[in-house]
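Re: S-adenosylmethionine structure - here you go.
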Amino acid sequence: MANEWIERWREGRIAFHLPETHPQLERHWSALDIPPGDKVLVPLCGKSLDMRWLADRGHPVLGIEFASEAIEQFVAEGDGEVSRYRQGYFDVWRQGSVEIWCGDFFHLHIDNTREIQAFYDRAALIALQHPARQRYAFHLAQLLPPGAKGLMITITRSILPEKGPPYNVEPEEVRQLFTPNFELELLDVLPADDRGFSEHVWSLVRRGPSEG
Ligand SMILES: C[S@@+](CC[C@H](N)C(=O)[O-])C[C@H]1O[C@@H](n2cnc3c(N)ncnc32)[C@H](O)[C@@H]1O
């Protein structure tokens, strides 16, 4: 699967990438009341401009992406000096207050996320096959402290290619995946566009250990 994504990035097959900040991030982030300074984890980040938007609002950002091509493009299209260093399994790129860790999200360890207080996820689930989606929801929960808040934008696709990605992820599945460890609230539903993609916008709060 990693190779498939790396190939996609090399060939420029990245129709999921938006040339602007996601309007639903701009619309809903402030309602989550996450103070500037809180560090935001962005799993499966691609070269999303949403990371810059979050950084501009005072949030240090930690993105995870396994295609180095995506990260190269992100920093080339941004401003400012780039520094690089090694952190365990990951090759880390830093530009301003955005750091992107090049490697597999599932290798990220709780020791790497001790400074994280919030998260933002757009379109991570559609990149993953069903068993990996379960691992994703569980792993994300393990990386976050109780009370961590996040915004998640999931994509449902009525017209699917014969084999994914993108995989279709229904809102019912999103609820099943996340309710064991998160309080989940559906904030918005955007109807299908002409490619058959509709989006659901969710707010999540990581539950504490004793909350059922
Ligand atoms: C559908 S794209 C979404 C990218 C970004 N969130 C956005 O909104 O533009 C999914 C991204 O996740 C990356 N990816 C997939 N599986 C991954 C994994 N296990 N660890 C790190 N990155 C992964 C892919 O290379 C791809 O860039």
